[in-house]
Amino acid sequence: MNLIAIGNGTASRETDKLAADLIMQLKTSDSPEIQKVVVSEAGASVYSASEFASQEMPDVDVSLRGAASIARRLQDPLAELVKIDPKSIGVGQYQHDVNQTELARTLEAVVEDCVNAVGVDLNTASVPLLSRVSGLSGGVAKSVVRWREANGAFKNRQDLLKVTGLGAKTFEQSAGFLRIRGGDNPLDMTGVHPETYPVVEAIMAKVAQPVENVMGRADMLKTLRPELFANDTFGVITVKDILVELEKPGRDPRPDFKVARFNDGVDDIRDLKEGMILEGTVSNVAAFGAFIDLGVHQDGLVHVSQLSNKFITDAREVVKTGDIVKVKVTEVDVARKRIGLTMKLSDTSTANAQRGRENKFEAGHRQSHQNQRAQGPAQSGNLGQSAMASAFAKLQNKG
Q1: pTM for the complete prediction?
Q2: Which one, of 320, 257, 304, lies nearest residue 92 by Cα?
């Protein structure tokens, strides 16, 4: 399948329309299917001018580096977005008002948690991605890549101990998060840590099957009693985790990739009419409401009172950055570039109530949000960006 990645910044809808026209012109009965996908370009300009981008693509123009970043984040957003400072991706409109040291530390921890939860392909990962793995410093990550370039692909996790600067302690911390596909040991592609391989061997002896025949066999694994394989070193909880991992070996815990389907013919705020039901992406969330990207170059606001039929005091109880939601247009003010929205799709009396509540604080919050959008949009990517936004929110609530 051929894909076209389109950045969601300036002229995104126009480019999307151009791509659609080109796809129709190129379409024949025997031609491969071509799809277009709008991708968050938050932080792409920061990456394109960075030292790492110049090392990766030394002879490529800065604008083309940004285009390459947009394309690669469609292929593997986690691997691409780790090359960018999380604060440059956008983590909330008040990110400059909190303690910057604590914010940076919290965001770094969130990124590391995301990388470790997903796992890293040892034979394809870049230095920035490897350096986010628990236990691997930037220097050790470079050593891993140098060893791979000199000796070829890693055949098993034990090869890591041959890397200069990677000792037993670092191996213990990092090995469980590093995956090897098509290697000597099928367990190396799973989240099972090498130190627990003896437990797996005991399980295989019990079922009298090789590990490759058991992996993915939930029906067989669910019949096993974890307490039979626990010992003084590895308890029942660890054995349960191993069995779960064997049921879905090498699974990706990330949710399916989704993008909002913008309505054809709705490209500008002037195209919006009251009563329209549209799909959009949550671009930012504050206590008072959620901003929704509708693809018209101006985010709309769903006030906290319009997010749910039940009473809530904080919009973050209902939505998070990156969510795909359906909304109804309740107000369009072209002159002031204001779009009022509601998620109560069946409620016909929401417009007046929303206007009254919004007017109390509308101007200040909207201007703050617009200023942040001008500096760098806080839009959805795929690298646990909502997790980073949540981490930032916790810092904000601390004071």
Answers
A1: 0.70
A2: 320
